[in-house]
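INFO  loader      accepted 1 record
INFO  loader      residues=86
INFO  predictor   begin
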Amino acid sequence: MSAYGSATVVVEAGEHSGARIQARLAVAHGRPVVLMDSVVKGTSWGAKLHGQPGVMVADGPMEVIGHVNKIVSNEGEVSALLGVMS
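INFO  predictor   done
INFO  writer      dumping tokens
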């Protein structure tokens, strides 16, 4: 699923959650990942992903929305550029 989505957002997950695999694969696919701060602080895999390219950390829901809006607007800019170039 990470290859199809514009981004992966993880708001809650445990140490052995399937979200761990989803987030890791999203990074491998070059897709943006937004992790809640509680996931980064509460799991070793979240802490390990923190700081990698394309991984953003949010303190709350409004910050998640801000990151997602930025991701979506950047995709629109890229699509517009590709449309002009084709």
